[in-house]
Amino acid sequence: MAEYKRAKIVMLYSGKGKEVQTEKLIKIALKEKRVVLPITNVEKRILELSEIKDYDLELKIGTFNILEPKKEFIRPIEIDSLDLIVVPGVSFDYRGNRLGYGYAYYDKLLATVRRRIPFIGLAFHFQLQHRVPHSRYDIPMHFVITEKRIIKCR
Ligand SMILES: Nc1ncnc2c1ncn2[C@@H]1O[C@H](COP(=O)(O)OP(=O)(O)O)[C@@H](O)[C@H]1O
Ligand SMILES: [Mg+2]
Q1: pTM metric for this prediction
Q2: Which ligand 1 atom is nearest residue 135's CA?
Q3: Enclosing domain of residue 96
Q4: What share of the chain is helix, strand, coil (3-state, %, to 5)?
Q5: What CATH code is carried by the domain that includes residue 131?
Q6: Ligand 1 atom 27: the closest Cα is on which residue?
Q7: How many domains does the chain have?
Q8: What is the pLDDT of residues 15-42, one digit of tens each?
């Protein structure tokens, strides 16, 4: 995608459970981009951002069984330096509405983005629904990508 090609700093996620896995994506991205992963701060209920440089060396299993940077490899980075954000989810719809796990971690993070950058939901095609319930707090995706299609939502 042009949006990805243009981006210099991309935020990806490390998949948990049956989410779309991203190890290969992160490793490819590390060769051509600066790559940022979230760290779940459970006390504050927010995602913190850290740049990673080496997938095999720097990550450990953290909160919710998600791979995140080890303490000694945390390199904080400002949200507004990101050029693109890839987001996991339980379900998405064709308008870009997103259902998470009910803690709104990504809604809170995306609400703080001040630049116009693409938010991209990554999911298996069966996770796409015609309509996903949403409230005024829910931040929609600009694109949803599945193994079948790239859906431009807005
Ligand atoms: N930016 C925000 N600041 C504070 N609370 C929020 C924010 N976004 C969502 N919430 C609240 O967090 C709760 C969970 O949000 P929800 O969107 O249902 O979760 P998820 O996005 O994980 O599916 C809701 O009660 C919602 O009102
Ligand atoms: Mg939400």
Answers
A1: 0.96
A2: 17
A3: 2-152
A4: 25, 30, 45
A5: 3.40.50.10420
A6: 137
A7: 1
A8: 999 999 999 999 999 999 999 999 999 9
